Amino acid sequence: MENLLAKLLFYQPENPVSFMETELENLMKLRENSARPAPSLFTDANVTALFNKYDVNHTGVIDAKQYADAFKTLALPLHVTPEAHYTKAQFLDDVRASLNLKTCAFY
């Protein structure tokens, strides 16, 4: 419910009822077919921008502390032990996985 309200406030659709119906239908389909990605407030562009904020030297890699801080910024729990360094692709994959776990609490 919290995620639905956040999306409603974030996107501010012209027809909130229709928007909520569509989001609820997406959640129901997700429940039936777990191979589909979970609906999320964050896009890959948002997560990439966050990674770039921590990648101050533009090396394409962040260290374990930066990784943990970025997850804290997104209010996501760490589900893995941070390695010494993470690439942008690794970071995106880990954030997607954590968002799916957090968003799909009904499983």
Topology:
Blueprint (H helix, E strand, L loop, with lengths): L1 H10 L4 H17 L11 H11 L6 E3 H10 L11 E3 H16 L4
Antiparallel strand pairs: 1-2
Helix pairs in contact: 3-5
Structural write-up:
Helix 3 (44-54) packs across helix 5. The mean pLDDT is 80. The two termini are 14 Å apart. This protein is 60% helix and 6% strand. It is built from 5 helices and 2 strands, in the order H-H-H-E-H-E-H. By secondary structure, it is mainly α. A two-stranded antiparallel ribbon has the order 1-2. It has 2 domains: 4-33; 44-103, Recoverin, domain 1 (Orthogonal Bundle), CATH 1.10.238. The protein is elongated. One of its GO terms (molecular function) is calcium ion binding. Residues 42-77 form the EF-hand domain.
Describe, in short, the structure shown.
By secondary structure, the chain is mainly alpha-helical. The protein has helices at residues 2-11, 16-32, 44-54, 64-73, 88-103; strands spanning 61-63, 85-87. It folds into two domains: 4-33; 44-103, Recoverin, domain 1 (Orthogonal Bundle), CATH 1.10.238.
